[in-house]
Structure prediction request, 503 residues.
Amino acid sequence: MNRRWIPRLLGLVIPFLAWEVASRTGLMHPVFLPPFSTVLWQVVTLPGEVWPDFLSTGFEIVVSLLLTGFSGVVIGVVLAQSEKLDALLGALMWFFYAAPLVVFTTFFIVTLGVGPGVPICLGIMSGIVFVIASTRDGVREVGKDLVNVGRVFGANPLELALRIVVPAAVPMIMAGLRIGVGRVLVGVIVGEFFASGGGLGYLIVRYGNELDMARVYAAVAWIVFTSILLNTGFARIERSFVTWRPV
Amino acid sequence: MARIAVDRVSMAFETDNEHRFVLKDLSLDIADGEFLTIVGLSGCGKTTLLNLIAGLLTPTSGAITVDGKPVTGPGPARAVVFQDASLLPWRSVLRNVELGVEMQKRYGKEEIRERALAHLETVGLPDFANAYPHQLSGGMRQRVNLARALIAEPDVLLMDEPFAALDAHTRESMGYELQRIWAESRKTVIFITHSADEAVTLSDRIVVMGRPPNGIIANLDVGLPRPRSMEVRGLPRFAELSLEIRELLSKAGARS
Ligand SMILES: Nc1ncnc2c1ncn2[C@@H]1O[C@H](COP(=O)(O)OP(=O)(O)OP(=O)(O)O)[C@@H](O)[C@H]1O
Ligand SMILES: [Mg+2]
Prediction:
């Protein structure tokens, strides 16, 4: 039926084999590039070794995602109401979007201190722009007719938002969340690099300083897994959420 | 007492920095329980007038009152049956009907559900309560649209070409059903259509609108017996009225 998995598998196996050989033969220095099999072993054993760090990174990701989603949607809905407000805050949004995250770490360390607060805030800052922008655009596109339906049948502004406008914008909001998820994850890890005292990002820095590159790569592998998992998970939620089609 | 009074209403839209009047000093009285139909060429301002009465638009000048009270905004007392069904696609048929009443805080959840089911029965869709709008035909969607307006228990039903998108046969049977529902509830109805036959079949009175901003150019009492069955539609008076409307419209169209 589908034979594409053969080249796909080869595409994975060949680089890993080359990696293994390069490291074993000393072509690459084994300290900087430990053999693939060693790294793989670390990937398997790492969660058992440092499970509290996995937990705290997981916790930070979940909190960061929830806050990003909730406040992103609320701000997006508010911005959609007024062109002026949007213009005013739009510039600020582009600043968040374009400025390197690291700029904010110092600020957060000073205000929040070392701990999970920094990665959570950095996660929110990295992802929220996408949720805000797509919610705002989604809400703007909600048909005038649907809004009029709400007005005629007695919706107050809050009911209008919760029962008509936000549900109608759900496809766009979900698309924004899906993009935001990856950014939140990166933000959390970067936050942990600098100021957390725990978590996968923190471990990467520590192992790096100890030149324990096998563990560094193992931790990176786990971050990549999480990212893929979150992305496919979100794509699936997105699809199941939007079983209806626009009429 | 006139249920709805439109008193010298003008409506202008801002286009490219110029005021363009769609309605100018239009006056119209609609009696309690009357079925009034508005016919007119495309763009003559029928929807604008209906939206003004609904409270979705505010007139540039003039006043609209319902039972003596000025219209200041939209509300369920003047329920609109929208031109394209405008159902919420993420809600089931039943939940779409419930929307018509749920925000009035008049009934509890149970009661709302029962009423919604009863209204689906009224419009002939009891088996589709759990279907979603995209699974329905155009005619079925318009039935849901009508049920949503009826459940709001409005004093006035405002219907903007509700059957325009339907095939001739469905359209005719929807017309008969509307007659039946109207005969039972005796609500005041303002109905917009492009079809002269539909207007004569349904209405007590027909108002013909000319090119904007001419407003109302004719006011016709139908005076045919009800219910307007096939036989009634065969009466000479029916054909006369229908022809008269067509002539008025074509004259209004030619005078450009
Ligand atoms: N929001 C608006 N802004 C500017 N012009 C408008 C607006 N709404 C309506 N108009 C104009 O007012 C005129 C009357 O529109 P209206 O929708 O009331 O016509 P109608 O009689 O309902 O036509 P149809 O039979 O095609 O539905 C049209 O020329 C239209 O372009
Ligand atoms: Mg219209």
Notes: Chain B has a mean pLDDT of 92. The first strand of chain B starts at residue 2 and ends at 15. Chain B touches chain A at residues 54, 56, 73-76, 78-80, 82, 84-90, 99-101, 103-104, 132-134, 141, 148, 152 (CB under 8 Å). The domain at 33-58+69-77+157-256 of chain B is CATH 3.40.50.300 (Rossmann fold).
